[in-house]
Amino acid sequence: MSWLQDYAQFKHFLVSSPVEYVAFVEIIRPAKMNAFVEDMWVELGRIFARLSHDPEVRAVVLSGAGDRAFTAGLDVQAASQSPVFKGGDAARADASRQATQNRRHISEFQDCISQIEKCEKPVICVLHGISIGLAIDIACCADIRLCSKDTRFAVKEVDIGLAADIGTLSRLPKIVSSFTWVKDVCLSARAFGPDEALAVGFVSRVLETKAKAVQTAVEMAYLIAAKSPVAVQGTKELLNHARDNTVAESLRYTSVWNQAMIQSSDFKEALTSAVKKSRPRFEKL
Description:
2-enoyl-CoA Hydratase, Chain A, domain 1; 12 helices; 2 domains; Lyase 2-enoyl-coa Hydratase, Chain  A, domain 2
């Protein structure tokens, strides 16, 4: 598939296409349990920004290479050598200037990870093995989360002396069914397993193995990709808007959105195919 050549430049991620219109993104640093260094989150942001507008892609599956970990989070050893950790030019800069440097660094990190949520295409995240710290930030940005039975989750940031700042504390309370549970796992940094993650709604399915979870995710992505991209991308947009706004505001936004999108040829194609009991074919978007 020639379009995949556009993604061959990335060092820490492998992008493939197991079935038509589905992109499979893998974190490929298994020797370090897929732990993130700065170059990785920059690459991740660029990949998802590109996937968002790629007409060859209608759904995305995200996972990590190897069997040990989806990701062990931030590479703490590498992070300890960064200017932010060391205090940067603190010896020459006053506290306000150092704080500004820190804020800019955190905002860049946030923006890169948020590209997963901003991606116009649905993203299915497959978690397995060690899935801690940044793994939770990344997973919270996905639209659908699956995991294998060996997954071990944790919001680990308090154990390294900081409040999670890349998205977990903002998104996790809106994902799961219990705010007290969110405070439980975020304040204690305790580990929790697949059954607990399923019970609170953090994941929608638990599969026996990583291979089975990836297979299931690809099947789900293929099912989504076979549908109207106008309808699918609109549905993701409207659901995310509803999550963050009132019912009245969301109803108004939906009416404005669909006053344009209902004019798509996909609407007619889907109705005609339903009558004829044939499989619809939708144009690229």
